[in-house]
Specification:
- The complex is a heterodimer of chains A (133) and B (266).
- Chain A contains four helices and four strands.
- Chain A is of the alpha+beta class.
- Chain A has a single domain, classed as Roll (Nuclear Transport Factor 2, Chain: A), CATH 3.10.450.
- Chain A has a four-stranded antiparallel beta sheet.
- In chain A, strand 3 and strand 4 form a beta hairpin.
- Chain A starts with 23 loop residues before the first helix and ends with a helix.
- Chain B is mainly alpha-helical.
- Chain B has one domain: Ferritin, core subunit, four-helix bundle (Ferritin, Up-down Bundle), CATH 1.20.1260.
- Chain B is 61% helix and 7% strand.
- Chain B is built from nine helices and four strands; from the N terminus they run H-H-H-H-H-H-H-E-E-E-E-H-H.
- A two-stranded parallel ribbon of chain B has the order 1-4.
- In chain B, strand 2 and strand 3 form a beta hairpin.
- In chain B, helix 2 runs antiparallel to helix 3, helix 2 packs antiparallel against helix 5 and helix 5 packs antiparallel against helix 6.
- The N and C termini of chain B lie far apart (43 Å).
- Classes of the chains: A alpha+beta (133), B mainly alpha (266).
- Chains A and B meet through strand 1, strand 2, strand 3, strand 4 and helix 4 of A and helix 1, helix 2 and helix 3 of B.
Chain lengths: 133, 266
């Protein structure tokens, strides 16, 4: 039988380039951000901010802490999606608590000298509902 | 169902990342790139550009569908044209999603901005078709012509033919827009002026602060795509020939070029 090669889809042309892997270190940093938000650790979050500073980070931390006060201990955190702009990644994350609506946020991470830091944040909880449905 | 859906109310799956355009610009500036758009000389240009188009096709599909729904009193032939455009754009979205796979990307690898949808924010069907069909679909002619030339240089018939097929449709959408902009404003020069002004705003939004040239004037830079090194445009070009096929006049194209270079002075 003729050698057909590793054809993922025999009905169409094969990809001309491979996928760009999502850096595991970025995922680890995103998970750390979510854990710090869930714990209401504003100092830890500030330490992960880019040296230039991040607007709204304190506001996001306060909102997450407030959600924690109303909703009880965090049950789990999840990364819902990640998308990149060149080499920076936007991450959408969510913190679930037993007695409150999930707390949803989006933040951008960028890497310098092997360290992923927060570049911007956006609280999506209770906002842009149709986008996040 | 609600008419005139606001920019921040367009539904997307939860796993989809939406980022306002100005934030995306800042993300690019923070990394030392020009703010506006992924350029041919950047790594992963094809992935980024095709992703932007796939998202744009979805928003174009939604825009045509919304135009059909938002203006129930518009002429029946207008509604038929919009329905046809929904069908066209849905095919285009599928084509570009398949092309993403072809170049090693996937829907969701990059964020989507709501900027194209923001061009629907007007409650007159004449303005709507001027903005969407003439402004945005005119931009699509430019973008697609450039990708076709890139694919030709790469020697890649898959991208070349797929995008050429889509471009043929876009040209009909521009013509459709020109026809309805004129028909809907017949005997009402003020309404025509408003529709043209709305389109001018959109053209100005997408001249990318002067980062556009003609095909002949585009500086050539080395690019590596599809495993091959080639020289290609460093800017987003304006496709005179495709725009003329779509029914834009020489004067309109010259005005667009002049506006693009005027912005560069800022």
């Amino acid at each position: 039988m003729a050698e057909l090669g590793d054809r993922v889809n025999v009905m169409g042309p094969q990809p001309i380039a491979g996928r760009t892997p999502v850096p595991p270190a970025m995922i680890a940093a995103a998970e750390r951000v979510l854990a710090l938000l869930a714990a209401g650790d504003a100092t830890g979050l500030a330490a992960m901010a880019a040296p230039s500073g991040v607007n709204d980070l304190a506001e996001l931390a306060a909102a997450a802490t407030d959600a924690g006060a109303r909703g009880g201990a965090p049950e789990r955190c999840e990364i819902i999606a990640a998308a990149r702009v060149n080499y920076h990644y936007y991450v959408k994350g969510r913190i679930h608590r037993a007695r409150a609506e999930p707390f949803t946020m989006q933040f951008r991470l960028g890497e310098d000298d092997g360290r992923w830091t927060i570049r911007e944040v956006q609280n999506l909880s209770g906002r842009r509902s149709a986008w996040t449905r | 169902m609600q008419r005139m859906i606001a920019v921040d109310k367009l539904a997307r799956p939860d796993t989809h990342i939406l980022v306002p355009l100005e934030r995306m610009f800042q993300a690019r500036v923070d990394q030392g790139f020009s703010p506006t758009n992924v350029m041919p000389h950047e790594e992963d240009f094809l992935k980024g550009r095709l992703h932007g188009i796939a998202a744009g096709e979805m928003q174009a599909m939604e825009a045509a569908g919304r135009t059909l729904f938002d203006f129930p009193d518009a002429p029946w032939e207008f509604q038929l044209d919009m329905a046809r455009q929904v069908w066209d754009e849905s095919r285009h979205a599928e084509i570009f999603i398949k092309l993403l796979d072809y170049v090693g990307s996937y829907l969701g690898e990059f964020p989507e901005s709501e900027v194209l949808w923001s061009c629907t924010q007007v409650d007159d069907p004449a303005c709507r078709v001027a903005g969407i069909n003439r402004g945005l679909e005119g931009l699509a002619c430019d973008v697609f012509e450039q990708i076709i030339r890139l694919a030709q240089k790469m020697g890649d018939p898959v991208i070349e033919r797929a995008v050429d097929y889509v471009l043929a449709d876009e040209i009909t959408h521009v013509r459709m827009g020109s026809k309805w902009m004129r028909k809907l404003t017949e005997g009402d020069p003020e309404r025509l002026r408003q529709a043209q002004a709305f389109q001018d705003n959109i053209d100005s939004l997408f001249n990318f602060q002067g980062a556009r040239t003609t095909q002949d004037e585009a500086p050539q830079v080395p690019v590596e795509v599809g495993g091959r090194a080639i020289d290609f445009d460093a800017t987003l070009t304006i496709a005179r020939e495709a725009r003329m096929l779509a029914g834009f006049s020489d004067e309109e194209i010259d005005r667009l070029l002049k506006a693009a270079s005027r912005s560069a002075a800022y």
